Amino acid sequence: MTTKIDKAGPVGTPSPAPEDIKAIPVRHYGRWVSAVVAIALLVTLVYAFAEGDVNWAAIPDYFFDGEVLKGVRNTIWITILSMVLGVALGIVLAVMRLSKNPVTSSIAWGYIWFFRGTPVYVQLLVWFNLGLVFHYINIMPIYKDEWSDFMTPFLAALLGLGLNEAAYMAEICRAGIQSVDEGQTEAAQALGMSHAKTLRRVVLPQAMRVIVPPTGNEFINMLKTTSLVIAVQYWDLLQATSEVGQNSGATAEMLFLAAAWYLILTSVLSVGQYYLERYYARGTTRSLPATPLQRIRINLLSGSNRQGGASA
């Protein structure tokens, strides 16, 4: 009687366990070299600024100065109002651009072409000096005044920034609306919904997922663009720090102070944009990525679990 023997051994005997695979990580020497070069350049740059002829002590002294805080408040205020005007008018222009009426679509196209084709700085100056063309503003039963009294620095800044932003928001909103499948509109119209109701209840909520991320970028960009309103003598952060710098003799130091405030404000807006994008991403992915706080909590819990397992 013969016994069948295969490579693993006689039939019925357990096969030996496979050996563990020892993975040898690939060494990336280029990463280490580039990291060392980057750190060396960063240290050199920091050393150059530290040894420069800059009075760094003046920055914390004026960081919470009353005039500077007034400039910060006005910067935030004009940013919010300009974005509200830009988003509201941008939605209207996007709908007009997609309209089948050639007159309204042509007007929207012309508006976007003009305001995207001219610099914001020039538009601010035009609004501020438009009194050369219109000497009076006359809204017969409501308001009548000279243009120089009507067009204040605040109004010139609001119109210059808000109307320019509307041209960009129109294209963002148009892209968001066109990203929604046409079948959604057809289904809503089959249920008897009007065009306006379909747009408000069906199309725009789905388009927000595409509209929100670039709108957040535009909001952050608007915050920095407000520095141009110094051209129309509006008291913003840059105007305030420039005045403080001239009075104190620390002109360059106050520019660094303004940069620090802009970094703080843009960082806060970036955090808000992150959570807003997470909110509108619901339903598009099966599971949302963990937030930075959630990742820290997970790492802490995993570390404590490893320590508990090692002690056991």
Report on the structure:
- The chain is mostly helical and 312 residues long.
- Helix content is 70%, strand content 4%.
- The protein contains 12 helices and 4 strands.
- The protein has helices at residues 29-51, 58-62, 66-97, 102-117, 120-128, 147-150, 153-178, 182-190, 195-225, 237-248, 251-280, 292-311; strands at 5-6, 9-10, 136-139, 143-146.
- It has a two-stranded antiparallel ribbon with strand order 1-2. The protein has a two-stranded antiparallel sheet with strand order 3-4.
- Strand 1 (5-6) and strand 2 form a beta hairpin.
- The protein is flat.
- The model has no long low-confidence stretch (mean pLDDT 84).
Helical content (DSSP H or I, runs of 4+): 55-70%
Q: What is the typical, i.e. mean, pLDDT? A: 84
**Spatial gap, N to C terminus:** 54 Å
Widest sheet: strand order? 1-2
Unreliable stretches (pLDDT < 50, length at least 5) are none
Rounded radius of gyration (Å): 30 Å
Total count of helical runs of at least 4 residues:
12
How many beta-strand segments? 4
